[in-house]
Amino acid sequence: MNGHVKSMYFQQFMELATTLLSVLLLIAVDSTRTVAASRNQQCGNSLQQTLKLTRLAQKESVDLIKTYKASQGQMSELFCKVSVNNVPDPNISGLEPSERIVSIYTHLQAFIPHFKRVYEQQTDLQLPMSPLLAELIVVSARSRNLAALMNSFYQSLFPNLPVPEPAGGATALPPPQNVFQQKVYGCVVLKTYKEFLSNVSRELRNLKSKVCRRRIQINTPFF
To answer: pTM for the full model?
Structure first.
């Protein structure tokens, strides 16, 4: 076989190899985009589920405040207007999406001991069959469920970043209170929680466009 024929066969081999490599690259790109699109859809579905539960909790918190005021007797409208210390801030903190998701999660965890304290106080002030007590149990359970969803959503987005522990340690609760202070405290806790859920709902809508769409951009290579 002379040099010319060898060169021709080598050129044909290189053209075939180049074509095959191009096909493999296209398959790889298509597969990667499919996986990324699937993850993006999972991200959106998880976020939508969390947002749906947040809206339900928000509606229940509105109803709970009405029930609470109706059960506190005279001056109930004034109770929520008094300033109280040691109640979680309704605002979400952080610059990055990961930080803001953690902020939501830690806030939900922080409210739970306050719900327990309000429930304990109200058991001394209400009849055993009071609808307020039942609604307080529901809102506390809903907060736990929502915190679990937020934790799961965070872990799916940032599997290599563990959820940080709250900076301040255990949630600070108020010292012993008289009846008037208890009524004020309970109303402020529930009002603040309602405001917080409103902020969470708004934040989740913003995160859907920031986090889920960015995942598909990060996971999709360009050739």
So the answer is: 0.76
